Amino acid sequence: MKNNIQKLLRNNLKNRSPYASARDEFTEPAEIWLDANENPFETGMNRYPDPRQNKLKEAVARVKQLPKNNVFIGNGSDEVLDLLFRAFCEPRIDNVIISPPTFGIFEVLAEINDVAIKKAPLNEDFSLNIERVLQQIDEHTKMIILCSPNNPTGNTLDEQAIEKLMELASPLVVIDEAYIDFSKSKGFVNKLDHYPGLVVVQTLSKAWGMAGLRLGLGLASTEIVQILDSIKPPYNINSYSQLQAIKQIDNKIDTEQQIASILAEREKIRKALEQLPGVIKVFPSDTNFLLVEIKNATQIYTALLKKGIVLRNRSGILNCKECLRITVGTPAENDRLLKELRNLKL
Prior knowledge:
This protein is an alpha/beta fold. Helix content is 35%, strand content 15%. It has helices at residues 5-8, 54-64, 77-88, 105-112, 130-136, 159-168, 222-231, 239-250, 252-274, 297-306, 331-343, and strands at residues 71-74, 95-98, 116-119, 141-147, 172-176, 198-203, 216-219, 279-282, 289-294, 312-313, 323-327. A seven-stranded mixed sheet has the order 1-7-6-5-4-2-3, sandwiched between helices. Strands 8-9-11-10 form a four-stranded antiparallel sheet, with helices on one face. Strand 8 (279-282) and strand 9 (289-294) form a beta hairpin.
């Protein structure tokens, strides 16, 4: 990988001084807090949160087996991705490359940040086509954003292909691994030392069961983490989210049991769906969902809505015609879904 991080960084950020909150200016223990204009009366939440999320970063670093300095915490992975756009992409000048079908937020964030999107579609079997990616790179390409395991297709992209791409490409390679905890793949966290321009984006929303807390992880070189820290909002992660996340991370055994249950249920649903006459294909999945090609997908989606069951209709995106994305629920929820599908007489 031929990255020069400072060369990729937006010019207006190279020499700026980051905003320092009141809590950034000291490291010693304190007894009386008169620095941040807070309400002094104890409510449990009257003080600002730790702006660097030190204890939460330590917990994440233990689980991910990384130094704390390689961990950035965002208000959901959306914020991590948005900050990458803001740090490295000059509006109306630079571009990023994505490989559809993939997570729709990549394109949304590009539009919001006024950054051009270049598309290198996956092959029809949803595998990565690195030749297409390389052909799209030009002097203004700042990031290549991949999703693995991919949403909405469910498959893990070929890791050797991604490594080859990182060896050949100069832009940052950002890999969204939101579903990595459901995959047999170890992902790319253990490659950070080898590829300085690699950013792995993960989340505590999926396997860890904290979607309501909005916590995303940016795992990257110390240099990239420092850049993101310098441009994030001062107190981007609230105190409650930090405290609850630490408790949940320390409760790793429950999380592992839930993942095992989800994977068993995924297999149960897959086998049941393959027996339904209207189902054309259930795609392989390394996630907590299944992409299913099914006759009359939109009609089925609408019929299930009337029964109070919400799926994701993916029929309108590239190479996903007549496809529904089904999240694995609890055993009872999955049984209800299969019952209603059978009653529709597909």
